[in-house]
Amino acid sequence: xxxxxxxxxxxxxxxxxxxxxxxxxxxxxxxxxxxxxxxxxxxxxxxxxxxxxxxxxxxxxxxxxxxxxxxxxxxxxxxxxxxxxxxxxxxxxxxxxxxxxxxxxxxxxxxxxxxxxxxxxxxxxxxxxxxxxxxxxxxxxxxxxxxxxxxxxxxxxxxxxxxxxxxxxxxxxxxxxxxxx
Length: 181
Prior knowledge:
181 residues, alpha+beta, globular
């Protein structure tokens, strides 16, 4: 069996991180991109655009989690999930969970540019409100997917301004996704 040595494009990854770091940027170099805010929406829209550029099938679930699916040889099999979150703490860093999502994108970009077909689908996921800085408890998006929290519980969680997760999501959930089929 022949193996191919793959290398991610470091410059491209750093450029992607720099774009992310410009959204919600703080004077000290940190980020403030709380879940379901205008800054989060702007970053998510850019992220969806990047997923579409890679010809991924993009979908958003009822909790606002974003998925970008790359097909494999066995598309009826479960996907390999990679990713994390794009939201931050009020004074978050540029890498935290963000690096999990952006390096996942770089993996897909590297596979695509090298025309490598994987056996199984790969799905990048960006979970909503993982940090829990706006809506408590943390990990609502992944907790909902894992069955740790009910949708009703998540939707009724409120921020410090008494805005429910559901209200914020409804106002926020205006990005466009399209299938690449």
